[in-house]
Specification:
alpha/beta; binds zinc ion; six-stranded parallel sheet; 23% strand
């Protein structure tokens, strides 16, 4: 077997401290159905930044020392006992794949509810410590370990490493949210709160479906991209800091109705109460960006008085990953996906990339790992 005993990885040695580039073991014995990858590139998700700061509720990750990163594309280096990906497509050594957490396929969430992202026996990729098998829990490492049911999906040749990587969290979650938000047609008005990766991919998804899309977010660079991807109206929250004025603006832009669908993709807890006011009578509210474990006040009577449905999504299942990649492939002539990736640098610069993500100076930084073999 031709892979090194150790590879370089960005290791979280302590929450809130800078990650350190350290050697981490590469597993030699793979479980039945598992894949070892040579990682080409990983992108930074806002969740990674919050995880490093230990700002999310418990359950997302383990204790340091561990490796973060859950948006990554790798080449198959080795597979144990399989020759297809999670949706039955042929898979060979050298093919590029993206993947997700491991799910069991034998619990009520996996089988009865068709929601494997809630799997009772979930093997979370960022939960393992760097000194315990399979060592390479996260994507910010030169090699990766895909759990036997980690939902590996082959990446179509037309999709670049960076765009494929962004599909493996942000876009697949948007595909999941889109599915949960119900039907969309030419008359549907969609309000997207937030203009980060989730918000921007949401713009593209609903525009492609024929909806009229309005964005409330910032900063200006992101709103420009939202416009380029087809948002009809954008509101920079810096230009209108008052939530009630923003609600009035949305009402103004929608003939007094609000959004048939409102997508919460900002991750700001207070945005939930604000977004509720933006939902049209009979409309739907999809919460996709939250994760801060903070309470907010809102008036529940508006749910039944206005016949509103609220739903939330946690991550995504392999069929969403496949559809995310297929969406990106099919619509690549309409949307310049590369615009989402605001920088590409080596693993040694990962801490700076996290800092610029945190200050909103970047939409999505990419971390280059190994050269394609
Ligand atoms: Zn993520
Ligand atoms: Zn399960």
């Amino acid at each position: 077997v031709l892979h090194p005993e150790k590879c370089r990885a960005a290791v979280v040695v302590e929450f809130g401290a800078r990650m350190q580039i350290l050697p981490v073991k590469v597993p030699f014995a793979l479980e039945q159905g598992a894949i070892l990858t040579r990682n080409l590139l990983a992108t930074v998700c806002a969740t990674d930044v919050h995880l490093l700061a230990n700002a999310l509720p418990p359950g997302y990750m383990g204790e340091p020392p561990l490796v973060l990163g859950h948006e990554v594309v790798g080449q198959v280096a080795e597979m144990n006992g399989i020759d297809t990906d999670a949706v039955g497509q042929d898979l060979h050594v050298g093919d590029r794949v993206v993947w997700t957490h491991g799910y069991c396929g034998r619990c009520r969430y996996c089988v009865l509810d068709h929601m494997p992202s809630l799997c009772a026996n979930r093997r979370s990729s960022m939960a393992g410590q760097k000194d315990e098998f399979p060592f390479l829990g996260g994507g910010f490492a030169e090699y990766g370990y895909v759990f036997p049911t980690g939902g590996a999906i082959r990446v179509p040749e037309e999709i670049s490493d960076s765009v494929a990587s962004a599909a493996s969290c942000a876009m697949q979650t948007v595909v999941h949210a889109y599915e949960r938000s119900g039907g969309v047609d030419e008359g549907t008005v969609v309000v997207v709160q937030g203009a980060g990766p989730l918000g921007l991919f949401s713009v593209a998804r609903y525009v492609a479906a024929g909806a009229k899309v309005i964005v409330v977010g910032g900063p200006a660079q992101r709103l420009e991209l939202a416009r380029a991807w087809g948002a009809e109206k954008v509101l920079d929250i810096d230009d209108m800091p008052s939530p009630s004025e923003r609600v009035a603006w949305v009402m103004d832009m929608t003939g007094g109705r609000g959004g048939d669908i409102v997508v919460e993709a900002s991750g700001v807890p207070a945005a939930f109460a604000e977004g509720m006011e933006m939902v049209a009578e009979g409309g739907r509210y999809v919460v996709v960006g939250q994760g801060h474990n903070v309470d907010v006040k809102f008036n529940p009577s508006m749910l039944n008085v206005r016949n509103i449905m609220i739903t939330g999504v946690r991550a995504a299942a392999p069929h969403h990953t496949w559809r995310a990649l297929e969406f990106l492939r099919r619509h690549r002539a309409t949307f310049n996906w590369e615009k989402m990736i605001t920088s590409t640098q080596g693993l040694d610069h990962i801490n700076e990339a996290f800092e610029r993500m945190d200050t909103w100076d970047e939409i999505k930084p990419a971390i280059k790992l190994l050269e394609r073999a």
